[in-house]
C-alpha cells in the first residue's frame, strides 16, 4: 500500500489546514505567482482526471469536489500527488509537534528514556525509510513544499525542501528540548509556543548572557563542592547532577522581573534547597554554614527545624534588571509537595492585598522532585485550584528536578504515566522537558516559561531531566540499588566542565577567566565560613518567610498581653442584622424560601436575638468594619452545608447574578470573600493556611463540609497548623470550622432542602404534626424542618465526629503542671499554646471567639467544633445582651440555675462541652434534679481554663465530679480533660466518665442504637448513686 491513512484521532485536515486548499486556490485565481509553484502547477493542470483513491481522506475528497465545482473536474495524477504530498508534509510537521518529544535527547546520561518508553513513534522520520509512512520517498527530499500556517520553521520563508523541513523539525523537537503542548485546546496558545521554539535561530545568546550563565553554574556547583569538602558526612541533599537548576531559577526570576514582577514566592523540597537559599534568595552564606555546627544554640522558643526546611524572605535589587525584587522561600515540612497549596495561598493573598488581580506583580514558583510530583495527590489538588476565581494565582511556574529516581525507586516502579509531569496536562499547562546538561537550552526554556506565564497567566512546567550524582543524601550508597545508572553517572562529566569547555573552545571566555571565577566564589565561601564560626546562636526569626511588619514590637514580641473587649454596640448589631436580612441590590429576585429565612433573621434582629448564622454574620460584619479582611473558604460555604448561612444570594431570573450583602454593610469596610472551593481538603486547607500567612490583619476561615473530612488534610494540620510556630516561629491565625456532633438522625435526609423550600408553611405545619404523632421528638430536627431549611445533615459513622481528641492530643499545654494564675493568665495561656480548641454552646460565644481571634495581639490557629442541629435549635439562641459592649468570650459557662444558688446542696457537677449540654439540661428538668445537679460548660477546651474550673470545683466541695460527653469514651474530650481536672484537685477527687462506651467507629449508623446509647448515658448522668462505692 502506498500510503497509510493518518490515525483517525488526528484531524490533520481540520481547522486552518482544511481551508488551506481553498486559500491557495483563491490566491492563485487572483495571482498565479502568489502561490508556490507546486500549487500553480496543480491548479493549472487540474482538468485532467485521476481514478478515485479509496484512501483519500474525506476532507480531501471535499477539496476535490470543490475543485470540480470550480470547473476543475479532471485532476491530474501528478497534481494529485502534489496535493497528497503537501498534506503528508503537513501531517509530518504535526507529528513532530505532537510526538517529537518522545525521541528528544532528554537524558543527560544517554541511557534512559524520559518517557519510560523506548518506542519510537512510527510517524517521525528517524530513518529515511520512514518517509514511506507518508507516501513520500527519498527522491522527495529535495522537493519544495509550501508550509502551513501552523508552523514557524520557515522563518521568513513560506516553503522549504522536505529535507530542510525534517531537519528543522528535528532541531526544534528532537534535540535537548521536548515539548508537550499539542493537547492544549487553544490555537493561539499552541501557535505562541510553536513560534517560540520553531522560529529558526531563536536560541541565540549573547556572549554576556553566556558568561552570566557560566558564572551562575560556577556558583551552583562550587557551593555544593564547598559543603562537601567542609562537611563530608552531613546531609544536605545536594544538587549535583542538576546544578543547572540555579541558573534556571535565576533566569525565570530575571525575566519575570523584567516583565514587572516584584515579588516571587517559592516552594521547594529538600534537593538543592541550601543552594537556592545561597544563590537565588541570597541568604548570607555564614548563616547557612553556621547551621552545620552541632554546637549552635537556638535563641528562639520552639523546637526549630532542620536547615533544609527553613524558609526565607529577602528584598533586594535584581542585578540583571536593576529593579527591586522580593523573594520568599516558604518553610516546609519533610512531607513532599505539602507546601504547594500553601505557597499558592500566600501568593493569592499577596496579590489580593496589592490589588494585583491579574498577577502582574506577584507570582509563585514551585519546585518538585520527579517522584513526588507524580506520586503526591496534593499536586493534582493544587493544579485544580489554578483557574478558580478565588484561588487562582494567575499562573505558576513549576520546575521539576527530574533526576529519574526517587530515593531508591526507579521511575518505572514509581509512576504509571510516561512523564512525571503528566498531571499538569489536566489544566492544559504546557510542559517543557529539557536536558539539564544543556544549560543554554534550559535558559531558553525558562525564558519562554516566564513569558508564557506573563502572556497567558496560566501554569507551565519546566522538566529538568537530570541525574543525581550521589545517593539520596550524601550518606547513601546508590550502587546498592541502581548499579548501572551509577556506573554511568561516575563517568559523567559535570555540566560545568562541559559548558566551560564549550565556551572556552568558542572563545566566549578564556580558561583564565573561568578559573578566576571559580577562585572568586571559593574565596567568598571561605570568608563566609570563617565568619560563620562567630555565630554561636541560631535565630530562627531570621529565617521567617512571611514577616508581618509592625504587628509585633521590635523584638518580635506581642505589643501587649491583653485582649481588647469583644462585645460591640447594640447599634452595630442591629445594623448588621438588618443588612443580613435584606437584599441590598435593586431588582434582585431571591428564592421565596430564602425570603422566609431573611424574614426570620429580621424578626430575630427586632427581638434582639441571634441564632448561629446570625452570630457569625455579626462577627464577620463587625471585623470588616474595623478594616479586617474576612475570607471564608471551603466546600459549599456560600450557602452553608446545612443551608443556614446564605452569604451569597442568587437572582432567580438572571444567570450568575449574585449579591453578597456582607459587602454592603458600610461604605468604608474591608472586603469579604466567601468562596465555594473545589472538592479538596488537603489542597484548600493548605491554600487558606498560606493565605493567612500573608497578613495578620485578616480573618481567614476554612470550613470542612463535615468535621471528619479534615483528615484528608491531616498533613496540613499536623505539619503546619499544629507545629508551624514551634518549627518556624511563624504565627498563623487560621480558623478551622469543623461541623461536629452525633445527631443520630436519618430522617432529615429524606426531607431535603429543595423539597422543603417549595412547601408552603401550612404543609410544613402538617409535617410537624405528623412527625410528633410518630414519636419523632427531636426538637432541633423539628425546628429545622419547620423553618423549611432541612438539609443533608445525615449522620452516621462518617459525619459525626470532627475528632476533637486528635486536636486535643496535639495541644501543647501540660496536663500535669499546675499553672500560676496571674492577671494575664487567659491571654498568656493563649500565647503559649500551639492552637486553641473551642466548642461553643451558644451563638454569642461563637461570635466572641471569632472576634477575639482577630483582636488578640498575636495569632494562633483556632479550631472550632461547630454544631449541626444546634444551628436551628430553639434553645441555642443568644440575646444581644450577651454580645453588646462589655461582654466577652466565656471560656467556661458556669451553672447559673438553682444549683448555683445553693452550691453546698449540689450532689453532682456535670462538666460538658457543646451540644450535649442541651440534652443534659432537658433530662435534668425531666428528672427534677435542678437543685441537685449543676451543669457547667467548657467552651474553650484547650488551652484548658484551669483558673475558671478551679473556681467551679471549689464552689461545689461535696459534689461528685462528672465529665459527660456524647462521644465514645476513646474519642471526644475525656482523655484530655481528665488529667487536667485531676491536676486542679490535686488528685484528691475523681472525675467520673459518663458517655458512650469506647468504639472503633465514630458513631453508629443505626438510629435506634444511637437513641439507646443516649438514653443509657443520660440515665447514668443523673443517677446520683451511679458511682457510689467505686474507687478511682
Ligand atoms: C509525603 C512524603 N513521603 C515520603 C517521603 C520520604 N522521601 C523523602 S525524599 C523521597 C524521594 C523523593 O524523590 P523525588 O521526588 O524524585 O526527589 P529527589 O530526592 O529525587 O530529588 C522520599 C520518598 C517524604 N519526604 N514525603
Ligand atoms: Mg527524583
Automatic annotation (TrEMBL):
SMART domains documented for this protein: Transket_pyr
NCBIfam families: 2oxo_dh_E1 (TIGR00239), PRK09404.1 (NF006914)
Chain ranges of the Transketolase-like pyrimidine-binding domain: 610-873
Cofactor: thiamine diphosphate
CDD domains found in the cross-reference section: TPP_E1_OGDC_like
This protein's name: oxoglutarate dehydrogenase (succinyl-transferring)
Broad EC category: oxidoreductase
The keyword Oxidoreductase is annotated on this UniProt entry: yes
Superkingdom of source: Eukaryota
Membrane-spanning segments: none
Keyword Cell wall biogenesis/degradation: no
InterPro entries: 2-oxogl_dehyd_N, 2oxoglutarate_DH_E1, DH_E1, KGD_C_sf, ODO-1/KGD_C, THDP-binding, Transketolase-like_Pyr-bd
Keywords (A to Z) from UniProt: Oxidoreductase, Thiamine pyrophosphate, Transit peptide
Pfam families, per database record: 2-oxogl_dehyd_N, E1_dh, OxoGdeHyase_C, Transket_pyr
Record-stated family: Belongs to the alpha-ketoglutarate dehydrogenase family.
E.C. designation(s): 1.2.4.2
Catalytic activity line of the entry: N(6)-[(R)-lipoyl]-L-lysyl-[protein] + 2-oxoglutarate + H(+) = N(6)-[(R)-S(8)-succinyldihydrolipoyl]-L-lysyl-[protein] + CO2
Amino acid at each position: 500500500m502506498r500510503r497509510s491513512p493518518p490515525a483517525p484521532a488526528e484531524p490533520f485536515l481540520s481547522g486552518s489546514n482544511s481551508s488551506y486548499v481553498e486559500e491557495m486556490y483563491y490566491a492563485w485565481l487572483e495571482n498565479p505567482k502568489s502561490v508556490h509553484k507546486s500549487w500553480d502547477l496543480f491548479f493549472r493542470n487540474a482538468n485532467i482526471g485521476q481514478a478515485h483513491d479509496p484512501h483519500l481522506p474525506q476532507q480531501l475528497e471535499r477539496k476535490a469536489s470543490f475543485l470540480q465545482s470550480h470547473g476543475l473536474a479532471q485532476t491530474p495524477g501528478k497534481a494529485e500527488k502534489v496535493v497528497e504530498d503537501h498534506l503528508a508534509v503537513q501531517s509530518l510537521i504535526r507529528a513532530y509537534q505532537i510526538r517529537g518529544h518522545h525521541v528528544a535527547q532528554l537524558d543527560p546520561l544517554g541511557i534512559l528514556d524520559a518517557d519510560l518508553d523506548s518506542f519510537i513513534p512510527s510517524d517521525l522520520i528517524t530513518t529515511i525509510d520512514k518517509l514511506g509512512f507518508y507516501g513520500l520517498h527519498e527522491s522527495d527530499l529535495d522537493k519544495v513544499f509550501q508550509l502551513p500556517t501552523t508552523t514557524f520553521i520557515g522563518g521568513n520563508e513560506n516553503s522549504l525542501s522536505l529535507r530542510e523541513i525534517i531537519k528543522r523539525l528535528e532541531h526544534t523537537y528532537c534535540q535537548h528540548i521536548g515539548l508537550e503542548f499539542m493537547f492544549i485546546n487553544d490555537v493561539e496558545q499552541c501557535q505562541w509556543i510553536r513560534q517560540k521554539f520553531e522560529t529558526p535561530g531563536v536560541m541565540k545568546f549573547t556572549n554576556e548572557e553566556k558568561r552570566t550563565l557560566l558564572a551562575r553554574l560556577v556558583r551552583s556547583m562550587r557551593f555544593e563542592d564547598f559543603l562537601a569538602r567542609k562537611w563530608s558526612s552531613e546531609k544536605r541533599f545536594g544538587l549535583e547532577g542538576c546544578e543547572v537548576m540555579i541558573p534556571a531559577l535565576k533566569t525565570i526570576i530575571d525575566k519575570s522581573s523584567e516583565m514587572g514582577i516584584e515579588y516571587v514566592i517559592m516552594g521547594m523540597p529538600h534537593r538543592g534547597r541550601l543552594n537556592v537559599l545561597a544563590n537565588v534568595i541570597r541568604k548570607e552564606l555564614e548563616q547557612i554554614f553556621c547551621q552545620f555546627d552541632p554546637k549552635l544554640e537556638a535563641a528562639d522558643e520552639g523546637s526549630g527545624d532542620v536547615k533544609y526546611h527553613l524558609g526565607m524572605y529577602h528584598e533586594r535589587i535584581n542585578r540583571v534588571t536593576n529593579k527591586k525584587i522580593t523573594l520568599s522561600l516558604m518553610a516546609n515540612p519533610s512531607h513532599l509537595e505539602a507546601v504547594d497549596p500553601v505557597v499558592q495561598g500566600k501568593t493569592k493573598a499577596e496579590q489580593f492585598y496589592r490589588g494585583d488581580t491579574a498577577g502582574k506583580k506577584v507570582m509563585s514558583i514551585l519546585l518538585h522532585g520527579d517522584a513526588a510530583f507524580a506520586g503526591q495527590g496534593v499536586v493534582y489538588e493544587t493544579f485544580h485550584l489554578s483557574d478558580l476565581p478565588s484561588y487562582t494565582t494567575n499562573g505558576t511556574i513549576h520546575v521539576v528536578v527530574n533526576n529519574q529516581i526517587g530515593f531508591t525507586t526507579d521511575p518505572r516502579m514509581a509512576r504509571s504515566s510516561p512523564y512525571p509531569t503528566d498531571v499538569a496536562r489536566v489544566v492544559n499547562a504546557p510542559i517543557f522537558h529539557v536536558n539539564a546538561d544543556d544549560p543554554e537550552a534550559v535558559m531558553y526554556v525558562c525564558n519562554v516559561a516566564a513569558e508564557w506565564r506573563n502572556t497567558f497567566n496560566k501554569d507551565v512546567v519546566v522538566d529538568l531531566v537530570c541525574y543525581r550524582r550521589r545517593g539520596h543524601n550524601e550518606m547513601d550508597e546508590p550502587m546498592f540499588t541502581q548499579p548501572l545508572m551509577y556506573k554511568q553517572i561516575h563517568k559523567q562529566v559535570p555540566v560545568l566542565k562541559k559548558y566551560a569547555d564549550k565556551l572556552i573552545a568558542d572563545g566566549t571566555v578564556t580558561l583564565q577567566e573561568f578559573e578566576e571565577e571559580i577562585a572568586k566564589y571559593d574565596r567568598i565561601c571561605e570568608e563566609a565560613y570563617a565568619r560563620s564560626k562567630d555565630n554561636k546562636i541560631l535565630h530562627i526569626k531570621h529565617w521567617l518567610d512571611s514577616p508581618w511588619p509592625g504587628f509585633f514590637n521590635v523584638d518580635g514580641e506581642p505589643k501587649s498581653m491583653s485582649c481588647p473587649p469583644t462585645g460591640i454596640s447594640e447599634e452595630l448589631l442591629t445594623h448588621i442584622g438588618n443588612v443580613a436580612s435584606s437584599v441590598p441590590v435593586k431588582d434582585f429576585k431571591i428564592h421565596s424560601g430564602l425570603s422566609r429565612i431573611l424574614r426570620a433573621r429580621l424578626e430575630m434582629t427586632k427581638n434582639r436575638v441571634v441564632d448561629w448564622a446570625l452570630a457569625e454574620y455579626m462577627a464577620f460584619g463587625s471585623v470588616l468594619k474595623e478594616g479586617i479582611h474576612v475570607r471564608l473558604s471551603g466546600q459549599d460555604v456560600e450557602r452553608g452545608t446545612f443551608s443556614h448561612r446564605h452569604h451569597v444570594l442568587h437572582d432567580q431570573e438572571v444567570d450568575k447574578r449574585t449579591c453578597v450583602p456582607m459587602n454592603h454593610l458600610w461604605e468604608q469596610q474591608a472586603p469579604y470573600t466567601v468562596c465555594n472551593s473545589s472538592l479538596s481538603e488537603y489542597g484548600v486547607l493548605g491554600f487558606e493556611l498560606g493565605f493567612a500567612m500573608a497578613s495578620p490583619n485578616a480573618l481567614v476561615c476554612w470550613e470542612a463540609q463535615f468535621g471528619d473530612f479534615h483528615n484528608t488534610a491531616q498533613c496540613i494540620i499536623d505539619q503546619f497548623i499544629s507545629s508551624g510556630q514551634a518549627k518556624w516561629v511563624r504565627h498563623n491565625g487560621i480558623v478551622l470550622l469543623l461541623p461536629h456532633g452525633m445527631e443520630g438522625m436519618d430522617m432529615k435526609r429524606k426531607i431535603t432542602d429543595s423539597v422543603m423550600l417549595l412547601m408552603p408553611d401550612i404543609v410544613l405545619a402538617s409535617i410537624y404534626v405528623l412527625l410528633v404523632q410518630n414519636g419523632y421528638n427531636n426538637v432541633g430536627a423539628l425546628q429545622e424542618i419547620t423553618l423549611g431549611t432541612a438539609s443533608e445533615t445525615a449522620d452516621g459513622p462518617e459525619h459525626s465526629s470532627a475528632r476533637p481528641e486528635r486536636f486535643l492530643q496535639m495541644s501543647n499545654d501540660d496536663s500535669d503542671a499546675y499553672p500560676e494564675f496571674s492577671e494575664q493568665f487567659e491571654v498568656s495561656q493563649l500565647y503559649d499554646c500551639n492552637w486553641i480548641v473551642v466548642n461553643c454552646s451558644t451563638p454569642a460565644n461563637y461570635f466572641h471567639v471569632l472576634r477575639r481571634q482577630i483582636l488578640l495581639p498575636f495569632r494562633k490557629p483556632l479550631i472550632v467544633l461547630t454544631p449541626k442541629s444546634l444551628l436551628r435549635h430553639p434553645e441555642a439562641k443568644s440575646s444581644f445582651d450577651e454580645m453588646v459592649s462589655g461582654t466577652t468570650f466565656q471560656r467556661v459557662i458556669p451553672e447559673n440555675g438553682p444549683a448555683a444558688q445553693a452550691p453546698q446542696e449540689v450532689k453532682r457537677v456535670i462538666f460538658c462541652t457543646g451540644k450535649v449540654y442541651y440534652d443534659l439540661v432537658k433530662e435534668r428538668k425531666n428528672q427534677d434534679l435542678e437543685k441537685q445537679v449543676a451543669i457547667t460548660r467548657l467552651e474553650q477546651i484547650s488551652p484548658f481554663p484551669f483558673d475558671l474550673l478551679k473556681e467551679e470545683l471549689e464552689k461545689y466541695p461535696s459534689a461528685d465530679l462528672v465529665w459527660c460527653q456524647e462521644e465514645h469514651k476513646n474519642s471526644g474530650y475525656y482523655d484530655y480533660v481528665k488529667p487536667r481536672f485531676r491536676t486542679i484537685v490535686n488528685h484528691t477527687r475523681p472525675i467520673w466518665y459518663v458517655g458512650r462506651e469506647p468504639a472503633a467507629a465514630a458513631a453508629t449508623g443505626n438510629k435506634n442504637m444511637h437513641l439507646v446509647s443516649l438514653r443509657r448515658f443520660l440515665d447514668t448522668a443523673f443517677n446520683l448513686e451511679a458511682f457510689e462505692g467505686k474507687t478511682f
